[in-house]
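Re: weekly structure request thread

Next one in the queue (362 aa):
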Amino acid sequence: TSKPMVLFLGPWSVGKSSMINYLLGLDNTPYQLYTGAEPTTSEFTVIMHGPKLKTIEGIVMAADSARSFSPLEKFGQNFLEKLIGIEVPHKLLERVTFVDTPGIIENRKQQERGYPFNDVCQWFIDRADLIFVVFDPTKLDVGLELEMLFRQLKGRESQIRIILNKADSLATQELMRVYGALFWSLAPLINVTEPPRVYVSSFWPQEYHPDTHKDLFLKEEISLLEDLNQVIENRMENKIAFIRQHAIRVRIHALLVDRYLQTYKDKMTFFSDGELVFRDIVEDPDKFFIFKSILAKTNVSKFDLPNREAYKDFFGINPITSFKLLSQQCSYMGGCFLEKIEKAITRELPDLLGSIGLGKKP
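Done, posted below.
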């Protein structure tokens, strides 16, 4: 039931907060987000709709289950002090929520922030419907923290939009060079066949500099707003597609655990040491064709398979003996778990999507 969420990411001082102020007309109001040339935003700021302008502390947001931010409590009190909510009576916010994030400072380590910055970003990335990654002409270099961020965005390429902000500060020829340099920096990080959409403009209320491509910048701005509107309009379709994508991951995970368990049972004899047998399987799953067998079974790309290393941690917390084979999780009345999820992925969710496309009420 939550509204679509738009997430703003990128290096410090590239204009993320100014862009939100501009989109919501907050400039010169008491609630404009603080902006400046130095790193200004150190908090995760959630801008949502409310009857009147008001600020909400992170601890209050996490305690209020109606706001859907309560899971953020798991990142600790240090983080909640860096979380802030702002309610604004704005038409656009009736249909969408904006999240402004602290700028990436390449020479700062996670420990210095006092909370797991990447994990918090991942939480918001997993829930975002649209992700604006903002750059400006002076900050195109990609360091470790930005690289890590793009690794976290893997699989969400369709939701990413790159913004080259402050474009009217450059002459045409320079702007072309910067645009090329931005693509060159990002190419190794976004390995998809189709590059993400890049918007080139200056997203703030000031007039564009004279002698720059004002018409182009204005068109880009309008395109971005249309893009945003599209996400709001397609919200239901996006949610169903996301649930289906999640169901596919659950199915892959279930099949992998089942395969690990089956291999373990096959290898165990009366005299075997269960721990040693399983360690052998977890250390080298390829020797037992665990991942390859899943690819043969399902219509899954090898790029969508989870990381092998993750299963070492997973089985470290969840012993293999605590699982039952999928074939044993069937009942006469309830059917089989795996068949149910297969049916949802192949028939039920696509049918639901189709019914929305035809304008029927789902």
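The chain has two domains: 5-212, 244-358. The mean pLDDT is 85.
Next request, please.
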